[in-house]
Amino acid sequence: MEIYIPYLLAAGALVVGVFAGNFLQRSKANGIIKQSETRASDIIKKARRDGENIKKDKILQAKERFIELKGEHEKVIFQRENKVSEIEKRLRDKESRLSSELNKNKDLNRKLDAQEEQLKLRLEKLDKKMEVVSETQKQNIEKLEQIANYSADEAKEELVNSLKDKAKAAAMEYTQQKLEEAKLTVQQEAKKIIINTIQRIGTEEAIENCVSVFNIESDDVKGRIIGREGRNIRALESATGVEVIVDDTPEAIILSCFDPVRREIARLSMHKLVSDGRIHPARIEEVVQKTKRHIENEIVEVGKRTVIDLGIHGLHPELIRIVGRMKYRSSYGQNLLQHSREVAKLCGIMAVELGLNPKLAKRAGLLHDIGKVPEEESESPHALLGMEWAEKHGEKKEVCNAIGAHHDEIEMTSLFSPIVQVCDAISGARPGARRQVLDSYVQRLKDLENIAHDFDGVNKAYAIQAGRELRVIVESEKVSDDQAAQLSFEISQKIQTDMTYPGQVKITVIRETRAVNVAK
After folding, report:
1. Is the pLDDT of residue 132 over 70?
2. Which of 397, 462, 435 lies closest to 261 in space, CA to CA?
3. Residue 205 above 50 pLDDT?
4. Which long-range contacts (CB under 8 A, 24 or more apart) does 378-384 make?
5. Strand 469-474 with 458-464, pairing
6. Does pTM surpass 0.85?
7. What is the pLDDT of residues 454-486, one digit of tens each?
8. Which of 94, 148, 178, 395 gives 399 a disulfide partner, CB atoms 3.0 to 4.6 angstroms apart?
9. Across-strand partners of 460?
10. Is 72 left (phi over 0), alpha (psi -120 to 50) or beta?
11. Mind giving me the DSSP string for 115-131?
12. How far is the C-alpha of 422 from the C-alpha of 255, rounded, in Å?
């Protein structure tokens, strides 16, 4: 028993040590917990103080912003009140001028009434004098008949018989003289026919420009058209190639492009988007594609209306479509369709004057410039190209010859050919009809776009800013970011070497990547 006593004491000491250690650890843990709670409460108090300070700062900023917006609003209201007061002032001035003019008119009417009364009195006096004169004339005639033993009718008959032979001789001499004068003045008579034709066809012709204005109901629509960070307006410009200018012009957006087809597509697309209310890049591309198909149908309808208005029948459908495409082309600034319609009318009138078939003349006049609207570029002169198309689609020989010979590329074989040539010159020589400067300007913009299309990876190219900027859209799979910078430099170098232009041309290369998936 005595042997186990030391072991028991050691075990008891060990147990006491364990309990003592656990007690110390618990006391330390409690101290750490109390310290953590104290720190947490301090942090919470500090966060609350910081939150209050931030809240006060934000309230002060909001008040300052409110005061600033209020001042701007008051400034706008003050400007509008000034405009209203100016308008009211102008209206008062107009009313005063109108009242003064009305008073003048009243005085003038009174004077006119007085003059009218005086004229009536004079007319009555003249009537009385005429009665006296006629009575005196009857008495004199009766006295002359008694003296000459001839009545008035017998005297007239004898005088007529005596003058007949002299009149016949004079008439023959006059006729012979006029025939000789006519032989000497054939050229003058031809000029008279041309002048009379020009006077009878005096129609106004509209010249296409490079800007269209899209009217909107309110300026609030401008923000929706621009879109978030300008994404809508960039998508519209990329899809149509038209520069969209949104400025301070009230209730209007300006569409700028040298190509009237692009401007019309942009205008109709914007009208559909604004009417529908859904304006975002995907919707813009969808609407632009639908509008392009609509324009193709519109070209055919324009061609049909033109041939119906001119009374031309049996024209081939392809030629009708080409006539419709002339609406969106210009020659030296003169709208090609309006020019062709004018030439057709001139040819019809001149053919009637010369005793020819006016329907064939109108047909040749309408089709004489169809070679100017090819879908693909051709090296042939437009007169010969138009003649080839007319022959291909079954037009008569006289019409084909008139188309091909109106610029003396081939020999004239019918009388319709000089008529078309003369009428084309008349329409083009009319004051204000053509502008060489505009045509060369449009050609320069087309050359800019063609230069960009010569490079690999270019999807679209649009000349904007009146030719001061060339916007190039590339395919992201073929052109990397580094290659886009190199492409911009190469295009600028080629423009410098191949073209002559005023000022500078900015080349902007746009590369974007799209990921499209469909949820089913």
Report:
1. yes
2. 462
3. no
4. 381/407, 381/409, 383/407, 383/409, 384/409, 384/410
5. antiparallel
6. no
7. 898 898 888 887 677 888 988 888 888 888 888
8. 395
9. 473
10. alpha
11. HHHHHHHHHHHHHHHHH
12. 37
